[in-house]
Inverse folding.
């Protein structure tokens, strides 16, 4: 074609000239030559961009339409959510630590109760056999505590 330009480029350049040149000639007396030239360039720039810009074989209007479709009309919907494996592992380990603490506290309490009940039963046996003469008061105190200890044991 003319000056090795495509039809598309020629049409866009003619449109740019049809918009920009009248603007320049009509406004240079009112706003000055340099301001009129700047306005002409600003008015002609979109037509030049549509004429000359191409990316990956697509003209500017197709690129703009694709951007509008992707960003505005049909925005992407996130259909899945990524699981943070480190966060899951951290929560599992903290839960295990809490369970261990609970377990150890319960076990210690049970051991204390077992020791106390065995001590009470040994003292009772010793008193019944006559080995402890002056332990009457201690024996009575332990007998009063025995039902409370058994209730605790059953609660655990």
């Amino acid at each position: 074609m003319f000056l090795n330009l495509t039809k598309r480029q020629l049409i866009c350049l003619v449109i740019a000239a049809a918009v920009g040149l009248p603007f320049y000639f009509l406004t240079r007396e009112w706003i000055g030559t340099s301001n009129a030239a700047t306005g002409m360039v600003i008015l002609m720039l979109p037509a030049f961009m549509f004429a000359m810009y191409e990316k990956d074989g697509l003209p500017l209007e197709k690129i703009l339409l694709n951007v509008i479709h992707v960003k505005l009309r049909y925005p992407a919907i996130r259909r899945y959510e990524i699981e943070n494996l480190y966060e899951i592992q951290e929560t599992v380990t903290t839960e295990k630590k809490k369970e261990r603490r609970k377990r150890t506290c319960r076990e210690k309490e049970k051991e204390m109760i077992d020791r106390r009940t065995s001590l009470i039963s040994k003292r009772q046996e010793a008193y019944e056999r006559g080995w402890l003469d002056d332990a009457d008061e201690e024996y009575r105190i332990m007998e009063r505590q025995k039902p409370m200890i058994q209730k605790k044991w059953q609660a655990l």
Remarks:
- The beta strands are 54-55, 58-59.
- Helices lie at 7-31, 33-52, 60-73, 85-129, 136-155.
- The mean pLDDT is 79.
- The chain is about 80% helix and 5% strand.
